[in-house]
Design goal:
Length: 205
């Protein structure tokens, strides 16, 4: 059995208790239906270098790394979550495939995009910033590479054009701007999935 296959077995075995830990600590991690879409999309692009924006405790990071064999750069601003992620990847055996960056994605994403080329980008951090993350990564995304974004319908409030409730206004307005950008048929071939909270897969043309 290959190293990666062994890591995948360990990850599979550890996942239920890790998901339970996330629930207990109220840490949002990707839900099963979206995880399946994420891994299918990543496999399809045959990606070699992935950027993940929003690590949390490294659950999706681990799955991306073992499923694709790619190097994953991942960004998180919460030090405690990042520390837990590092421990988890070590126990799965995939720590050496993952580069973890601690800090604000607003600064880290443009800096990483200026240094690297990516063929898969998973956007999963601040919901009000998706549109800015997209602008920052677009030049470094290979043609045929994909952007995967979770929670794009944000509690169902983003669908349609109804005026959003005051406390969600910024997120809804900015997420609509993100959806408009990814519907540009000259730049992306986009599929929107009406999953748990809306998921977008956009392939760069
Ligand atoms: C939904 S969680 C990520 C879940 C993870 N991708 C998974 O599915 O296992 C979003 C994470 O993004 C982080 N985050 C939010 N805003 C951020 C920012 N501006 N810079 C860096 N990380 C941020 C949060 O601390 C949180 O841990």
């Amino acid at each position: 059995m290959s190293d990666l296959a062994m890591c995948a077995e360990r990850l599979d075995a550890l996942s239920p208790s890790y998901e339970a830990e996330a629930r207990e600590k109220f840490i949002p991690i990707i839900r099963p239906e979206s995880l399946k879409l994420l891994l299918d999309a990543a496999k399809k692009t045959r990606c070699r270098r992935i950027l993940e924006i929003g690590t949390a405790i490294g659950f999706s990071t681990a799955w991306l790394a073992v499923t694709t064999g790619a190097v994953v750069d991942t960004v998180e601003k919460d030090e405690t979550r990042r520390e837990r992620a590092l421990e988890f990847w070590k126990s799965v055996g995939i720590g050496d495939r993952i580069n973890s960056y601690l800090g604000d994605a607003d600064e880290l994403v443009p800096a990483l995009a200026a240094k690297n080329r990516y063929d898969f980008v998973f956007i999963d951090a601040a919901k009000s910033r998706y549109s800015d993350y997209l602008d920052a990564v677009y030049p470094s995304l290979e043609k045929g590479g994909a952007v995967f974004a979770d929670n794009v319908y944000y509690l169902g409030l983003v669908k349609g054009d109804a005026y959003p409730p005051h406390k969600h206004r910024t997120i809804v307005t900015n997420m609509r701007a993100f959806l408009k950008k990814i519907s540009d048929k000259e730049k992306f071939e986009t599929i929107l999935y009406d999953t748990e909270d809306g998921t977008a897969v956009c392939v760069k043309l």
